[in-house]
TrEMBL record:
<dbReference type="GO" id="GO:0009253">
    <property type="term" value="P:peptidoglycan catabolic process"/>
</dbReference>
<keyword id="KW-0732">Signal</keyword>
<dbReference type="GO" id="GO:0009254">
    <property type="term" value="P:peptidoglycan turnover"/>
</dbReference>
<feature type="domain" description="N-acetylmuramoyl-L-alanine amidase">
    <location>
        <begin position="288"/>
        <end position="425"/>
    </location>
</feature>
<dbReference type="InterPro" id="IPR036505">
    <property type="entry name" value="Amidase/PGRP_sf"/>
</dbReference>
<feature type="region of interest" description="Disordered">
    <location>
        <begin position="94"/>
        <end position="122"/>
    </location>
</feature>
<keyword id="KW-0378">Hydrolase</keyword>
<keyword id="KW-0961">Cell wall biogenesis/degradation</keyword>
<feature type="compositionally biased region" description="Low complexity">
    <location>
        <begin position="110"/>
        <end position="122"/>
    </location>
</feature>
<dbReference type="InterPro" id="IPR051206">
    <property type="entry name" value="NAMLAA_amidase_2"/>
</dbReference>
<dbReference type="Pfam" id="PF01510">
    <property type="entry name" value="Amidase_2"/>
</dbReference>
<dbReference type="InterPro" id="IPR002502">
    <property type="entry name" value="Amidase_domain"/>
</dbReference>
<feature type="compositionally biased region" description="Basic and acidic residues">
    <location>
        <begin position="96"/>
        <end position="106"/>
    </location>
</feature>
<protein>
    <recommendedName>
        <fullName>N-acetylmuramoyl-L-alanine amidase</fullName>
        <ecNumber>3.5.1.28</ecNumber>
    </recommendedName>
</protein>
<dbReference type="GO" id="GO:0008745">
    <property type="term" value="F:N-acetylmuramoyl-L-alanine amidase activity"/>
</dbReference>
<feature type="signal peptide">
    <location>
        <begin position="1"/>
        <end position="18"/>
    </location>
</feature>
<dbReference type="GO" id="GO:0071555">
    <property type="term" value="P:cell wall organization"/>
</dbReference>
Length: 966
């Protein structure tokens, strides 16, 4: 295999990865049948059982590991050891100053309460209750999907009996049992507790669901609109308004009688966080700062994990001596939302005053559980609905530069860095969360040094990095190394809590270097390498992207953990400045490095002065805004700030096909034409993407021909017996509409439908050759003169009879156009148009290279220098012959299929030349395959499937393909 071909193929992964464990043998009939069997055994409607499980876990078993709130297996049954939780909380690192101003604590601040343990109750022990009902050990319900489903069915049936309701086959009659399922049937719950969960279950019943789990189990729930319609469920629907990235920033106002700021599709309440003075010192108060923020002040939404139960956490936030709060708290069992701080006020949640001032904090119920590796679906669903509402209301962009974890908040000053939190942690599924937000994009072009890349590992069994003291399981990060195959950057470890050597899903970085399947990014002031097989990162080459670099002449740029104004701004506002004020972290942004800005508009440094509980200090509750401006950037695992005076915005390079050995592919799929590209010099692919259907072209296209010329790709297509043309501008990546060549002003009409076409170039001229009514016709576009020449009858010039040729292919050596064709006699012929001498000639190639045994079903040709290569598909196998025009000799047929190890018959063939290699693309089994012949090294590569991740990506079944190279 050639070096360039090897760079484009998928290789075995390197680096510190755990090999994916083989899929465990499922119960004999699989998950779908297990649901059916349990439903029948316990007389629970099968559709209801499926819907409950889907809303608990999306039918995932998580291989026996608990969620952050103690849920296990496909039914999400709970088993929480409160003593173990308390021990884990006691061993945890102490809380940082969540107010985030870095000032010395006053008064009783040193006596801050410990994280709240979960309040015990039936909701924490549904697995044990289910185990008793079915007479099986609790361990089986944790680890065996069938026993988990049986236990869940038994619990539902038990709740139905407790409600003195029949075990009906009508799911609508089970609404109360589903409400009770969410909290173990606890008595005395609030009037809405569990209804959010039940409504989602019946919403799932209404629309149905289907997915393949990470363990390969395909499960389907057929929609049952009638069950939802006549149940007590409220149709909460989904927040369907688009999440606006450019929405006007609106004021954060709420009526005094109704302070809840919550989407209508969620069940929410308002329980205020504690706000009171804690000692004789008026400066000693908690738990938030009274403010009048408007929408223009809110730039981020921060995701937290409480590491304590809902009720206990709520009590903590109500205690002003906690010195901590959040705007919202979400309950795990049913996704209920409690607002605690009005969004106009500054909650103390992030441990960084700048981030607190400009964000909304959302806490998610979660215990300090050993082995916890997932979050409940109810948390994801409610949180995403809330975040979507907030982003739309306040104009927060729905991307991972603005929807961030607490672990991505920077330490405000260097002494605070090590104490910053790492929730929601390694096992928060950012991919799923961003999907729920409608914002998980996967840009699809190849990697460019200096361009942008998004970390995007799959949160599935396909990717399970090694983590110390943790079983192999999905995680949301990639490890970063100091060199390809070298040690982890810095003194990094493989501990789950060590964020210093990890890049987390959704984070955007700048590509610093590429070596084969290793990609380097600029990270924390250095090159950081990760193994990149195309499945764990996505190039981001969307137009209009920028990166930040130091201004010319600066050796390095200071990096800050907060964006405070200059001292003069405090003096002008009559407010004492914090000491220290503008203080850099120990990190820098060196010359030659580049980072992704969270915004291309710098923000003014600001500081909200609110030192007393009652606003009694001079100039209390004043927002100080300075003249110095900052860009927020993705610096390492966390965000950071750089002074706008120190850096410049530079357009990110996006054209992966700008230089080097490149090819363009055009393929017809069952759903329409698609285009992709490969850069063999850089070892990157641009993924397949649809091309415009604008214009008069019918579908499907019967065949394509393609060539590079003048910085563009020119395509011709045969559809409905007519010839069409379109161009791709490689600078912008855009395709023109398709144009009908057979109109006046272009090539003009043809008397008969076209059955075959090909294309080649001589200088600035593109020659379109077609078989029309059995005649060989040629039309020429002269791009230098800007005109088309009408169709000419090549058969007439050569004296060929109608129907003399069938399959055709064309290539050019200098100003000589070679048209190869399969004759009606089954032999391969050539028509040569010598544009220097103004004459045509005709010959029989078969006489020079020998006959082929079998039926010729495809023909392709390419020229390089003085040589021409002719390739034929014979009964699904590929043969090759070549002509050396300088030496005046032909070489006979060679067996390309044998040299490449071809095993699947080829139905369509396309060929081009780049560098020293013949690039061969064929359609086999409805997929596009690629093999490369390196004539300098004298060897062929094996066939590679271009539709795999890391190459051009999956597409619908293909019928024909064309290729052009340069």
């Amino acid at each position: 295999m050639t070096a360039s071909a090897a760079a484009l193929s998928l290789a075995a992964s390197g680096g510190t990865f755990a090999a994916a464990a083989p899929v465990q043998a499922a119960a004999p009939a699989g998950l779908q049948a297990q649901f059916a069997a349990a439903a029948k055994e316990f007389k629970v409607p099968e559709s209801l059982l499926l819907a409950v499980s889907y809303q608990q876990t999306r039918w995932e078993s998580h291989q026996g590991r608990p969620s952050t709130t103690g849920n296990y297996n496909v039914m999400g049954l709970t088993q929480v050891d409160l003593a173990a939780v308390a021990a884990a909380q006691a061993a945890a690192e102490p809380e940082v100053d969540l107010r985030g101003d870095g000032e010395p604590r006053r008064g009783a601040k040193a006596a801050r309460p410990a994280p709240a343990a979960p309040v015990d109750g039936p909701a924490l022990h549904t697995l044990d209750a289910a185990a008793k009902l079915i007479g099986r050990p609790a361990a089986e319900l944790r680890e065996d999907t069938l026993q988990s489903i049986r236990g869940g069915a038994a619990l539902l049936a038990e709740q139905q009996r407790r409600a003195k309701s029949p075990l009906s086959g009508d799911p609508a009659t089970w609404y109360g049992a589903v409400v009770a399922f969410s909290n173990g049937g606890a008595q005395g719950q609030g009037p809405d507790e569990g209804r959010e969960f039940a409504d989602r279950v019946f919403g799932t019943l209404k629309v149905g669901a289907a997915r393949t789990t990470s363990e390969g189990q395909r499960v389907t729930l057929v929609a049952d609109p009638a069950a939802a319609a006549h149940s007590p469920a409220v149709d909460r629907g989904v927040e369907r308004q688009p999440a606006s990235r450019d929405a006007a920033r609106t004021a954060l106002t709420a009526a005094a009688s109704d302070p809840i700021e919550c989407p209508s599709t969620l069940s929410c309440d308002f329980q205020p966080a504690g706000y009171a003075q804690n000692s004789a010192d008026v400066n000693d108060f908690g738990n938030y700062s009274v403010a009048e923020r408007t929408g223009s002040d809110i730039d981020y939404i921060v995701i937290h994990d409480t590491e304590g139960g809902y009720a206990g956490s709520l009590a903590t936030f109500k205690n002003p001596a906690s010195y901590a709060s959040a705007h919202y708290l979400l309950r795990s069992s049913d996704g209920h939302v409690t607002q605690m701080v009005a969004n106009k006020n500054v909650a103390w949640h992030a441990g960084n005053k700048t981030l607190n001032m400009h964000s909304v904090g959302i806490e998610h119920e979660g215990f300090a559980l050993s082995g916890a590796s997932w979050y409940s679906e109810q948390l994801y669903q409610s949180s995403a609905t809330l975040t979507r509402y907030l982003a739309d209301k306040f104009g927060v962009p729905l991307d991972r530069q603005h929807v961030i974890g607490h672990d991505e908040v920077p330490g405000p000053i260097q002494s605070a860095v090590n104490g910053m939190h790492w929730d929601p942690g390694t096992f928060w599924d950012w991919n799923h969360y961003m999907d729920l937000l409608g914002a998980h994009t996967t840009p699809d072009q190849g990697y460019v040094v200096g361009g942008r890349v998004i970390i995007n590992p799959p949160f599935s069994n396909a990717y399970r990095p090694v983590i110390n003291n943790v079983p192999a399981q999905p995680a949301n990060f990639v490890y970063l190394y100091s060199s390809p195959g070298g040690p982890l950057i810095g003194s990094g470890t493989q501990n789950a809590s060590d964020w210093s050597d990890k890049a987390v899903a959704g984070g955007s970085y700048v590509v610093a270097d590429i070596q084969g399947q290793w990609t380097a990014i600029w990270y924390n002031g250095q090159k950081a390498w990760f193994w990149n097989d195309g499945t764990i990162a996505s190039a981001d080459n969307r137009p209009g992207q920028y990166v930040l670099t130091p201004k010319p002449g600066l050796g390095s740029v200071a990096v800050y953990g907060r964006s405070y104004p200059e001292y003069g701004a405090y003096t002008a506002a009559g407010v004492p400045a914090p000491d220290p004020n503008i203080v850099a972290l120990s990190a820098t942004l060196p010359a030659g490095h580049a980072y992704v800005p969270a915004s291309t508009t710098p923000v003014a440094g600001d500081f909200y002065y609110a030192p007393t509980v009652d606003g009694s200090a001079p100039h209390d509750r004043t927002l100080v805004t300075g003249g110095v401006k900052y860009y927020p950037i993705r610096y390492n695992h966390r965000l950071a700030f750089v002074s706008a005076d120190d850096v410049q915005l530079v357009p990110a390079p996006t054209d992966v096909l700008a230089s080097g050995e490149r090819v363009q592919l055009l393929a017809q799929t069952s759903s329409g034409p698609v285009n992709a590209g490969a850069n063999y010099s850089r070892g990157v692919w641009e993924q397949f993407h649809p091309i415009p259907s604008a214009g008069p072209t019918p579908e499907p296209k019967q065949s394509f021909a393609l060539l590079y010329m003048g910085g563009q790709v020119h395509a011709v297509a045969l559809a409905g017996g007519r010839v069409y043309t379109a161009d791709r501008n490689l600078t912008t990546g855009e395709w023109s509409p398709w144009y009908d060549l057979q109109v006046t002003g272009l090539a003009g009409p043809l008397a008969s439908p076209v059955t075959e076409l090909t294309v080649a170039a001589t200088g600035s001229k593109m020659h379109v050759v077609a078989l029309s009514g059995g005649r060989l016709m040629e039309a020429t576009a002269d791009y230098g003169a800007g005109r088309w020449y009408q169709w000419g009858d090549v058969s007439g010039a050569l004296g060929l009879p109608t129907g003399a040729l069938t399959k055709i292919a064309a290539a050019a050596n200098g100003n000589v156009l070679h048209i190869n064709g399969v004759g009606s006699d089954g032999r391969i012929h050539v028509a040569d148009g010598d544009y220097n001498r103004g004459m045509w000639s005709y010959g029989d190639i078969t006489g020079a290279v020998g006959p082929l045994s079998g039926t010729i079903t495809g023909l392709a040709t390419v020229s390089t220098g003085s040589k021409q290569y002719v390739l034929a598909v014979v009964d699904g196998k590929v043969k090759q012959a070549s002509a050396d025009y300088a030496a005046g000799v032909w070489a006979g047929w060679g067996d390309v299929s044998g040299a490449t190890g071809q095993t699947v018959p080829v139905t369509k063939l396309a060929v081009t030349w780049t560098g020293t290699s013949l690039r061969l693309f064929g359609v086999a089994g409805g997929r596009v395959l690629n093999a490369n012949g390196d004539y300098a090294a004298g060897r062929w590569s094996s066939w590679m499937d271009t539709e795999v991740p890391g190459a051009a990506g999956p597409i619908d079944p293909v019928t024909t393909v064309a290729v052009a190279g340069t």
